[in-house]
Amino acid sequence: MSSVEEAIEYLTSKYNFSQKVGIILGSGLDVFNQSILFSIDYREIPNMPLSTVPGHRGRLDVVRVEDTSVIIMRGRYHLYEGYSSKDVVFPIEVLKGLGVDILAITNASGGINEAYVPGDIMLIKDHINLTGENPLVGGPNFVDMKNAYSHRLREQLKEIGKEVGIELKEGVYVGVKGPTYETPAEIRFFRTIGGDAVGMSTVLEVIKARSLGIEVVGISSITNVHKDELSSVTHEEVLEMGKKISKKLEILLKEWIRRGIRR
């Protein structure tokens, strides 16, 4: 039995999973706390790495959203914590094994696009992987990434955003390894190659999800914007802005799920 199979067997012995929709929450993001049906700490799940970064609870929840139950991973793992790319995508394999075939991956990111302001929500339309890692090394190979961030799901969210009065940006996410925040020269470079936001997560998870046939929508919360060489950022500020953005994010995701993420 593989480490993933062991984790899945343990979870299914604790709860009758039937969810098709999953959500991974990024730094400081917190939604659907009022309707938890089942909850288990990562430390209780066999072979599951532990979240070490503030703002990542390290807990798997099943929540009720309208008439739909959804799996939420409250916390993720990062390369900068010392984890391998295989560790980083372990939760993706677990979610797939539990039946998830639609996944909303969220993150906190820094704005590169100078039209952005802190508090914006950006739908990811594509990414640039500058982590130097790929979780598919060794197989499977040659996964098509042209529609990695589902156009279908993005269109649904854009439509809902207009109806509920939440403005959504749409842009390219640059994934870096971290843990340092970016230098001004790096930001200029990222802007030159077409980046709109930058962060230290997401890209490896999306690559793995697509290799497993999971349809993905990516959502970046813009917690700060790199506009000049003297501006600074702290993790505490990222977490605080994440809390504010969470309110809008929950409204958006709740309506999306309520409508049944129609096929």
Tally of helical segments: 7
Sheet/helix structural class: alpha/beta
CATH-assigned fold name: Rossmann fold
Q: What's the CATH architecture?
A: 3-Layer(aba) Sandwich
From the spread of the alpha carbons, the general shape counts as: globular
Query: How big a fraction of the residues is strand?
Result: 25-35%
Kindly state the number of beta strands. Answer: 9
CATH homologous superfamily (4th level) name: Nucleoside phosphorylase domain
Sequence of strands across the biggest β-sheet:
5-8-7-6-9
Distance between the termini: 34 Å
What is the CATH class?
Alpha Beta
What does this protein look like?
This protein is of the alpha/beta class and 263 residues long. It has one domain: Rossmann fold (3-Layer(aba) Sandwich). The chain is 30% helix and 25% strand. The chain is built from seven helices and nine strands, in the order αββββααββαβαβαβα. It has helices at 3-14, 85-88, 90-97, 151-164, 184-192, 203-211, 235-258, and strands at residues 21-25, 36-41, 59-65, 68-74, 102-111, 121-129, 168-175, 197-199, 215-225. A five-stranded mixed beta barrel has the order 5-8-7-6-9. Helix 1 (3-14) crosses helix 3 and helix 4 (151-164) crosses helix 7 (235-258). The protein is globular, with a radius of gyration of 17 Å. The two termini are 34 Å apart. The mean pLDDT is 91.
Give the arrangement of secondary structure elements.
Layout: H1 3-14, E1 21-25, E2 36-41, E3 59-65, E4 68-74, H2 85-88, H3 90-97, E5 102-111, E6 121-129, H4 151-164, E7 168-175, H5 184-192, E8 197-199, H6 203-211, E9 215-225, H7 235-258
Parallel strand pairs: 1-4, 1-5, 5-9, 6-7, 7-8
Antiparallel strand pairs: 2-3, 3-4, 5-8, 6-9
